[in-house]
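Progress note, sequence design subtask.
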């Protein structure tokens, strides 16, 4: 098995070379903890979010969607406990005054190795992760915060959703959006960033221990099954229960879905039992329309990182075969669904026929690649590297019998298909996956 750091270097190189992910502000030296998604990366990320929304909202009758503002009244964060408890412990080097998270032992050792002299560390001190912003045109400006989690936007709109929609407990509110944390030591590519995207469900239930435990276990099963359905190997996933001393300030119970990455088992989605912490702090209640009973609901949350899921899906899909890279992404996630080639780029009849097929497929699948560079082998290799599931080649036989060659990315198998049946065949294959 190759060295884990080498695997990460290959993924980083692939992402930049093929337009998945770039360092933020790179021409000015970059900025730590911020990343830009290129033409292929933005499609991959969008496909992940679309699949999540379809699974969590469109396929269900008990979940509605929301898109809350990134900046909210600062009183929200005071009530939620984030200004008081959303902290990391930091130690400071007494020589150069650099600060590092107290629980990052490897980072501390690496920093000590940079100094010739023996160094001392301060006692751990708490550091709030909320990112401050200032609003208004007059001084002093109003101090506010970029949200540290997208969750609170759901809770402050709980009463609005209940009064404006026909929802009854149990029900959920889903949201996808950006969040910001002033991370002390961002790293491992996009795994720990200062700007990131979350996809979350807040599911409201009656304040009942037995019922809430049942819902908690249900969502655990649903969420890990979803990642497996998108191609992540089952053996690379596990649950890890939070100990009492590591749970977030709002959590009665918490378990993480972790991925076996090159830098260890790492969390990328949490299932949390938040109890009545949030609605209680915001002084929000629910009145049952059938029994007229009033109570503060409990919340079971699923909170996944889009960027972390993207990274782990790329890692899991990355395969090498005979020195060539094959990115075995699930077809529904792949940036391009199909690529179309003329066998020879200098034969007008082949190019014309291929262009016609390309335009027709683009109406159906939107993201269709066109490639007439180099020989056919290099084109296949190029599409394999970016994860395109199928390649369609127009050759001289196509001009005679209206059939084309369809090549499968994962098996390399090729089959002849009638041009009129091509879109239907590819749609069928996409649904099979």
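Output:
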């Amino acid at each position: 098995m190759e060295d884990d750091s080498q695997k990460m270097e290959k993924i980083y190189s692939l992402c930049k070379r093929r337009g998945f992910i770039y360092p933020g502000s790179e021409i000015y030296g970059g900025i730590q903890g911020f990343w830009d998604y290129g033409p292929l990366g933005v499609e991959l990320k969008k496909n992940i979010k679309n699949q999540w929304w379809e699974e969590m909202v469109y396929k269900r009758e008990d979940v509605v969607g929301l898109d809350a503002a990134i900046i909210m009244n600062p009183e929200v964060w005071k009530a939620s406990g984030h200004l008081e408890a959303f902290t990391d412990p930091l130690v400071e080097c007494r020589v150069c005054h650099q600060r590092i998270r107290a629980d990052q032992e490897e980072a501390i050792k690496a920093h000590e190795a940079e100094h010739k002299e023996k160094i001392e560390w301060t006692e751990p001190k708490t550091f709030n992760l909320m990112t401050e912003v200032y609003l208004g045109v007059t001084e002093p400006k109003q101090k506010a915060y970029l949200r540290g989690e997208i969750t609170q936007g759901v809770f402050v709109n709980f009463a609005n959703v209940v009064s404006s929609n026909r929802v009854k407990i149990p029900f959920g509110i889903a949201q996808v959006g950006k969040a910001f944390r002033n991370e002390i030591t961002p790293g491992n590519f996009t795994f720990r960033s200062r700007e990131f995207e979350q996809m979350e469900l807040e599911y409201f239930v009656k304040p009942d221990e037995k019922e809430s435990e049942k819902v908690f276990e249900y969502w655990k099963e649903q969420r890990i099954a979803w990642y497996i359905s998108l191609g992540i190997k089952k053996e690379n996933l596990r649950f890890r229960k939070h100990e009492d001393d590591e749970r977030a300030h709002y959590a009665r119970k918490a378990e993480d879905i972790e991925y076996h990455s090159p830098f260890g088992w790492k969390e990328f989605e949490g299932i949390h039992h938040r109890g009545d912490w949030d609605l209680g702090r915001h002084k929000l209640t629910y009145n049952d329309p059938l029994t007229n009973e009033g109570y503060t609901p409990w919340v079971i949350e699923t909170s996944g990182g889009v960027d972390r899921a993207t990274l782990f899906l790329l890692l899991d899909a990355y395969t090498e075969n005979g020195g060539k890279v094959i990115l075995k992404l699930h077809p529904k996630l792949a940036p391009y669904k199909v690529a179309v080639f003329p066998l020879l780029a200098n034969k007008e009849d082949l190019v014309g026929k291929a262009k016609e097929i390309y335009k027709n497929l683009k109406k159906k699948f939107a993201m269709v690649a066109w490639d007439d560079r180099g020989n056919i082998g290099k084109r296949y290799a190029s599409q394999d590297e970016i994860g395109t599931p199928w390649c369609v080649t127009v050759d001289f036989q196509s001009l005679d019998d209206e059939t084309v060659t369809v090549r499968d990315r994962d098996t390399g198998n090729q089959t002849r298909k009638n041009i009129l049946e091509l879109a239907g065949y590819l749609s069928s294959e996409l649904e099979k996956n």
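The longest strand covers residues 264-275. Work on this subtask will continue into the next period as scheduled.
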